[in-house]
Amino acid sequence: MTVRVKHYFLLSLLGLTLLLSGCGDQTRLHQLQVYITQLKEAATHKKNAETRLLQLPKPVLYAPLGYSGSANRDNISSQGLMRNPLQAYPLKVLRFVGTLTRNNHISAYIMTPDNMVYQANSGDTIGDNDNKIVKINVDHIELSEKYIETGKKPVTRIVTMQLKE
Questions:
Q1: Quick check: is 46 in a domain?
Q2: 143 in any annotated domain
Q3: What is the structure's pLDDT at 18?
Q4: How many Cβ atoms from other residues are within 10 Å of residue 129's Cβ?
Q5: Which residue numbers in the chain have pLDDT < 70?
Q6: Which of 143, 129, 60 is CA-nearest to residue 89?
Q7: List of residues 6+ apart from 122 with CB closer than 8 A
Q8: How many independent structural domains does the chain possess?
Q9: What CA–CA distance (Å, rounded) separates 1 from 25?
Q10: Rounded CA gap, 17 and 14, in Å?
């Protein structure tokens, strides 16, 4: 072997020795293993927390009310409570937003100020003034409203609620 080849061989051997000595540090390997273990524990803990959050609450069971023919006609239960949420609002704040026809029966859809939409049918009472739905058309609803003129007997009049788009 020539001197030149010997020098290259020795330099290569020295370089490999230095590289291998850098890989021999066990503290970095231990730090990496601790970090990976911490990540696994955090992921498991997060998954358990998400599972707890996804559990649905137990349903509340309500006792059914008995049927009363007169209470059903007035949309008021025997305890005097409103059965139709549309009775809780004045007529002027309710919006007629659409209709749906099924089997030749037309239903109206009415929106409350809190953006909830309820189905109403002919004969239902809506508004806080006992307005009864007389007729549902595609573009308007006719309601019968009882009112009292000053010093006179109660009078029934027809009020129209137009479709709002």
A1: no
A2: yes
A3: 63
A4: 15
A5: 1, 18-26, 46-83, 165
A6: 129
A7: 133, 134, 135, 136
A8: 1
A9: 36
A10: 5
